[in-house]
Batch of 3 targets.
Target 1
Amino acid sequence: MSIDRDLSASIAVTRFGLGARPGEIAAARTDPAGYLKAQIAPTGADQPEGQFESAAQRIADLRQFQTLRRQARRDAAPSANATADVDAKYDPVKVAQKMIREDTGAEFLARMRLASATDASFRERWALFWFNHFTVSAVKLQTAVVVGPFEREAIRPLVFDRFEALLVASSMHPAMLLYLDQAQSVGPNSTVAGLGRMGVPGLKQLSGLNENLAREIMELHTLGVGSGYTQADVTEFARALTGWSIVGLNERRYAAGAGRQPGEFLFRPAFHEPGARTILGRTYAEAGVEQAHAVLKDLARHPATARHVAVKLARHFVADDPPPALVARLERNFNETGGRLDLLAQTLVDSPEAWSPDQRKFKQPYEFLVSGYRAVGLAPEQLNHIAPVLAAMGQKPFSAPSPKGWDEAAADWAAPDAIIKRMSWSEAFAQATTPVVGQPMELAQGALGARLSPAVATAIARAESRPEAFSILLMSPEFQRR
């Protein structure tokens, strides 16, 4: 590292991490790179504090809620006033809805509290990157209830494992199977499709083959656009994936026999398209659930996947237009190690391009709020303090607009209206927090370290009040960028 240690410590905490808490830059000064490497843990990323249900439990809750809703509609059918006198707090449908909504909100709050308070924010940023890479969004009711469990179960434990393990876990998770409509995908020549054509009751309306998961795994999770795969490869992969589903609420006997509970992953042989599949020039023999596993293993180790992941990592941590040398170094490490993510993280830390003094990344709304809380050593106490603000800034909690996840480009977050909303939040946050924090200049030095420019330091010193000084810090170019 050719830059001085003070600046390196600031970069370590504000670029690799999620912003500096009081004293954190000083703690990183002795060995900035070592400070980051010490956060790479074989056990994965930290988990938000709290008692939260598993994805399977949430799905079972949702299915039960849907059953209650149907029952309530049937009961109300004879008369428009049949349920008018029922106290809403005893309405089973409303009670179920409220529980699901509150559980999801509490989980997001716990996740943001972890980000705001952790002393290992590089580890947390690394986990958030992979969660965005394997996006599951709350844009659907059936996935809104399992986004949090998906991150806890499929992403956080494996972020320093091999890429293959992370790919398989995310692809098999009930949240991904529901989000990308895989759970009901049916092979055209499968047993149930044949029964449906014969007119067997309950099988006439089968959804047919769904290619969403196969396409997104190839396009977004592994190979990337323009890597050489064809539509035929997508279709063949989708056929290999048929049968990957979840246990239904009314399959308790079958689930018990399989050792699984409603909502958990279940391979349905009767839905699986029989036969060998040829994908990217390689033939995969019929092997039931293992056929798609074999495809995933090869996709995880494909050279195009190494390139795709390297570009995304470099873009997230360093620049929207990532340095070619950094991309090449990450790509080479991925290929040489078989996708070991702990070694990939170390390579990122050891790359000189990642330590450039230039601040070329603009913070997304979530990062911005988290870094604001970290600057004053606090964490959000209530969901309504953060959720409406994030939604107004265009980053509604757990609700990426598509399977591509949240975009990295500064242009998507730095529009004039978005900047005005950041300013409004900064002023309100400064008013609410400055009575309990230190002097403005101390805050600025603790939050930015050697990145604090003379111009911003002067503006803070000349501010007419402590809240005004803190809001100037929050809206400064050095704080908005990393």
Target 2
Amino acid sequence: MILDHISGIFAHPQREWFGIRAERRSKTSEFLQHVPFLALIPAISFYIGVTQVGWSLTRDSKVVYLTDGSALTLCVLSYGAALVGVWCFGEFINWMHKTYSEEASNPHHGMAMAVYVTAPVLIAGLAGLWPNVWFNGAVMMLAGGYSVFLIYRGMPILMNIDRDRAFLYSTSVVTVALVMLVSLRVVTALLWASGFGPEYRG
């Protein structure tokens, strides 16, 4: 079912991880039933925010807007980056599984971990409707913190490993997530330097 388990991962995460583990899906099915829809949230929200609401760095500075074309290009690129990022994150989780568990790897479980722990960050993209730098930063920090909590809470359940190994596994996954985030920022800077940077409305 499309977007199932999403509300449960917020309301009762421990119980929901057991339900996710019991699902009999392929990793592709898990990905396609969630990520393409969740990734639309920040893309659409920021498009509306930067073209219709605007932002300013200080209270007294001028409100800034992006042109429709520039905003559309940037939001489409960010949507694609979200899809690729979550898929690669799931692949990394599956790849690292053999280091921390002697059981056979179930590709669905690694992809499910990637999908559900990134869900809070993607949903927090609603903050883009008001593209204030400080507001968005605070919201993303809260969402990121909850994602880290989900990783540590869900790893021993979803991957069926003891808590000591799960802690090390979770720490490795968080590290990979941070590296991917930094890499995304670098790629973004390179794209901006290559002519895909924002264009402001006059």
Target 3
Amino acid sequence: MTTFKIDAENNITAFTSSEQIAESEGETETFRSRKELAALAEKWPATRLVEIWNGLPGVQPVERFTSRQVAVARVWKAIQSLEPGDGAQAPRATAKKPAARKKAPPAARNRAVGHTKTARVIALLERPQGATLKAIMRATGWQTHSVRGFISGQLKKKLGLKVASSVREGERVYSIKRRS
């Protein structure tokens, strides 16, 4: 069974025998299973798990993990590809910035915009009769306070749209003038 050693600099090395680990120097911790790694990780700050992950070869660097369990699972899966050696350090990858992605052509960007909730709400509000609060709730799956906050924060403040609000037949109705 492969035994893994992690040192104070977060270098992980795979060994085939415990004797090789005993020969190594410095402050190290060892583990043989995901469960043992999880037990060790409980004592570590979350930033150490990020540093360990970002130091592994061939992984996409992260800024943080959603939980300690996710971090342990991802680190465990990644180190399974480390080859047991003669105690030499496994090659380390330096954290690289991801390559800048090129923007999609304008036609593709416009198609993608139509599928967002923002685009759906704007399309509803641009209809000649506007849209009721209930219609917007059905289209987005949001609650009333979320719809009102979205209209105020996103549409009015961030996008600068002029949203009119009125009451028609006892229902709140929102509308905006068509964009040119």
